[in-house]
Give the backbone structure.
Amino acid sequence: MAHLVFQTAFPGDVFLSIPLIKRLRAFDPGTPIVLACRPGLGDFFLLNGLVDEVIAIDKRSRTGRAQARQRLQREEWDLVLVPHSSVRTALWMWGVRARRGRVSFRKWWNAPFFDKRVVRPDHLPDALRQMSLLAPIDNRVAEWFATPEVHDLANPIAQQSLSLRQPLIPDWASMELGYGGPMAENDRTVFLAPGSVWATKRWTPEGFEDLARILLERGYEVELVGSQGEKALCDQIASHVKGVKNSAGQTSLTQLVSRFSAGKALVCNDSGAMHAAAAAGLPTVAVFGPTTLDLGFRPWNNHAVVVQKELKCRPCGKHGPQKCPLGTHECMQSISAKEVYAALEPLL
Ligand code: SF4
């Protein structure tokens, strides 16, 4: 009998499941953990020993969906944890059996799908929200959530930037994987990840270009990273700044996190790269535009700073729309490379 973590949200959300999965392993080390997630994400969890098996949920393939559903319904699970509380996700739970119950967040409509429904602690960062699913089963988690320390970690108010003075994330809630030991002292690489699935969440290419120039002038090496889909954007930036290394589209998720275990820092958007850096323990500057920290998706990293502008129109969507509704994209256009470098310098 195994535990199932069913998490088919975006890569960033799946990274934020790491503290939940680490705790599940510590709580019940003798029981295998199976992760159901989107194709392409599971290898990272397998190779890092976080889980023992992966079920790829390919929502676009009818056959893939049918095979995954069969696999989910074939065996009786011990615990089933479901951090993503959409209707489509709940429907996947139909016919899934769990000895100690199927656990998710309470919604007015989801009682038929889950045996235990936890009130979602919306005031906390998402890594902690996900971990709270274990509170009805694991007494240690329930105790941690009852301490004032947890509430010190509550989401900053909408326009209050995160600085290095924030209360530290405790070890039990950390998503660091202890990659690679101490960072190489002589590695002067600063990674830039200019991509994001959502267009308005991307800081400007010109901003990344100017920042790359500032860093190169100061003797740092600059490396652009991103997925295959972000390669064109990275190529464009690399073509405008001589001396920049461009690895976009060349690394798997596992290789990217491993790469992040060396180097000085990452500058990115509110994106999956930000969470990959948190897993590697890489200092990070994240540029936030249409999203704000009170939504709960801060960098879950003790060495992170957020740069953002105070604007009445922020936030303008949970994820950030593909087009700025005002047509200005001021939240990103108004952030200069000098401001970002000023936030980065203390981390270097
Ligand atoms: S409406 Fe405001 S927050 Fe949203 S994309 Fe435009 S400038 Fe940014």
